[in-house]
Amino acid sequence: MSRAFLVVMDSVGIGGAPDAFQYWNGAHSDTGANTVAHVAQALNGRLHLPVLDGMGLGASIALASSDGAPGLTADPSGCWGVATQVSKGRDTPSGHWEMAGLPVTWDWHVFPEKTPSFPESVVELVASMAGVDGILGNCRASGMEIIRKLGKEHLETGWPICYTSADSVFQVAAHEAAFGLRRLHDLCEGMAPALHDMGVGRVIARPFAGEIGRGFARTVNRRDFAVPPPMPTLCDWVKDAGRSVVGIGKIGDIFAMRGITRVLKGSDAALMEHLRSSVSLAPDGALVFANFVEFDSLYGHRRDAEGYARALEWFDVMIGKLLPQLRDDDLLVITADHGNDPTWFGVDHTRERVPVLVAGYGKGELGLVALADVAASVAAHLGVKNRGPGKNFLPLRDVG
What we know:
By secondary structure, the protein is of the alpha/beta class. The chain has helices at 35-42, 50-55, 57-65, 92-99, 120-130, 143-157, 176-197, 234-240, 251-254, 268-281, 294-300, 305-322, 373-382, and strands at residues 4-9, 24-25, 28-29, 79-84, 136-140, 161-164, 169-175, 202-211, 215-218, 223-226, 245-248, 262-264, 287-292, 331-335, 354-359, 364-370.
């Protein structure tokens, strides 16, 4: 029985979204944002992605936006296309839910770009549940910047650092040892229902470590408490068919564990080892759904094009090692959930089309597809019923 591996390069967009003009980073719209092309341009042709380019990454950039991506000019040997998102928003749940067959047709609640950002009722809820007299932050901010700015005061007062972004998120940063990791997770989990009732998509626990005077750094123990999907997704379709659904990275959090039978977490390096092990160990008929977040969290939001390039090159090497391990009847789909152009204005995600790179179905251009078509295609490969709006884009296999 065939298996499917759906791998998300978090934020690895390729430009060209037709509605980018409706999305903003500060005073600038996202029209013209192109994560991979601009990283390639920033490196003046030094971006080396032979595996992904051979699968069709460079060709997908040209189809999505006509932007030049120096060094990404291979004639694809794989099956490739470009997906356009219709969901409102450019956040993690919108992209992941749509590629799992559930486009988001409603507006998430987004906190205003002002200080303070949060209504007093939310501030009182956080303080009460944390057992403190107040919160720090209360604004839109980049995560590591606000931790560097307020980490000392957090350790001195014990007050959690609360911030948001242009996405529908409420984020709580706290020192993993001084505040307590379990306490932080319990706080975010306890608050989540009230925030979800407001239409906020995720409450995110952002633990960090370090010392005053020596600096702070996030740990890998992040947890996202997402509003549950309102309808079944690809994960449910596969699980309901009696199959295994392995969530690697934050997949379990994104889908509020709906349809997930096993979760594997860690840094992106650890997640890659989980993915490679899953290629060896996943049972027949399984769906392995993985998210690699560090493109986004470490480099996109921090507008670090060099760091983003290094992450892409590492991923390219690792995928090159994984491809020969796939069985002849396996499907591998590599895609993304949104963009986060590290050369763009502001610090938020960017509205972009995303690549669809397919191994296991020969060579060919898929053209422009819908992001929900990913779910339909994975379902078709696994032989489970597609309950979403997407269409199967996979060609017929050459069975010789």
